[in-house]
Amino acid sequence: MSTWILWSALSHTARLSTALQILIFLPLTLATLSTPAFLLLSLLLSAHSLIHGTLILLWGSQALSVMQVPMHPFLLLVSFNAFSHSIHPWLLTAVSWWGKILTFSGPSYVAMEGLSSLLVAQKAGQIGKELADEAESYQLAILIASAAAYVISAWVIVVAYPAAASSPLSSTLLGVALTAFLFLTVIGFRLRRTNIIESSGLALFLAYNVWLCGFDQKSFSDPASSYAPLLSNILPHLQTLVNFITNTLPKPVLVALLYRLTILQCASRILPTIGADSWESEEGVDDGWDGRPTSIFTRILLTYRQLIFVMVYSHLLLLDPSSQRWWRWANVFFTLLLWSVELFVGSEDDEITAKWKMD
User: Fold this and answer.
1) What is the rounded average pLDDT of the residues 201-213?
2) DSSP per residue over 81-123, as a string?
3) What is the spatial distance between Cα 172 and Cα 205, in angstroms, rounded to a whole number?
4) How confident is the model at residue 1, as a pLDDT?
5) Gap between the Cα atoms of 169 and 221, Å rounded
6) Which range among 147-156, 205-214, 315-324 has the greatest average pLDDT?
7) Where does the source fall among the domains of life (predicted)?
8) How far apart are CA 217 and CA 356, in angstroms?
9) CB atoms within 10 A of CB 258
10) Residue 14, Cα to own-chain centre: how many angstroms?
11) CA torsion, ordered 41, 43, 44, 50, to nearest 10 deg
């Protein structure tokens, strides 16, 4: 038993170390060398994550988490060494294509984030409704929590408004988004296709995106312009590295990364429960959920989550603040569009929909 606890602690420590290395090494390379060097490291980390995930899928041993810890410093040194002298044209071509892949993958990241956010909000609404049906004592707590979510969302939007609506187009988009959200909420209540928990969750999602659109860009430094060269004397200047970690890491990128990965993992846990036949129990029948296509997709998604981590983080680091702002607005309107389609499309007699929505 003690051996299992020790091994489990070692495995979790190794995973945390891996995540921290990826968080630091990618912006460090972008700051100290160049964008091509950063793309090379991102490509190497992605290839390693793909191999690592495949081995876990086939082998499933926790030892792989510990064995991969030295790989990330090694790949960092490879990237630094590759760009310390003349670069082979094939290498430049490879990193150029990798940069294009990351750029063109942007819409898919936005779609996954929006769909996952809507899915989690609907699941929260379903759970809240089931609790309210079981005991009336939960109804007051649900109403208070939903009201608090609405108030927090409104406060965040008001505070972020001066920066988020810095241009006529931005202010117009914000007004359209708020109007569409209010109309969809009223229509959803009227059609009895939504509830206050789902609506307040989407209000928080809207406020989160508005806050990111209005994030004070002066609150963090541009890694490419404010970082002192570290390559020539990396060991004697550990304090410089500490300052880089605390002051230069792009905080909006880290917030967006954390939210995107968290909401995607939550949605992946919900997916296997969607599409259940009305006579099935929560645990499913026969072999449970393991045979469902959504369960297979969830397993693959969670197995290759490190690859998704590297690709999403790399894409966010490549975006300038202006690009990040417009992707935020695209995310907001895509999610509202999905919500509107979900509210209007579907039969009232659909048992699956009835389970997710109000009676």
Assistant:
1) 92
2) HHTSSPPPHHHHHHHHHHHHHHHHTHHHHHHHHHHHHHHHHHH
3) 19
4) 57
5) 26
6) 147-156
7) Eukaryota
8) 40
9) 10
10) 22
11) 140
For the chain, first and last CA: distance in Å?
49
Which residue type does 131 have?
Answer: L
Is 42 within 8 Å of 314 (Cβ atoms)? yes
| pLDDT, greater one: 126 or 9 | 126
d(CA 291, CA 149): 37
What are residue 157's phi and psi, to 5 degrees?
-65, -40
Taking the whole predicted model, whether its pTM rises above 0.90 is answered as: no
* DSSP at 346: S
Sign for the CA dihedral angle at 42, 7, 299, 302 comes to negative
For 68-82, 94-108, 241-255, which range has the lowest pLDDT when averaged over its residues?
Answer: 241-255
Length of the chain equals: 359
Say if residues 322 and 166 touch (Cβ distance below 8 Å). no
Helices (H), the chain: 2-32, 35-58, 63-67, 71-82, 89-104, 106-134, 137-164, 168-191, 196-213, 223-226, 238-243, 251-270, 293-303, 305-318, 321-344, 351-356
Average of per-residue pLDDT values in the chain: 79
What Å distances lie between residue 324 and 56, 75, 190, 252, 256, CA to CA?
33, 28, 35, 9, 10
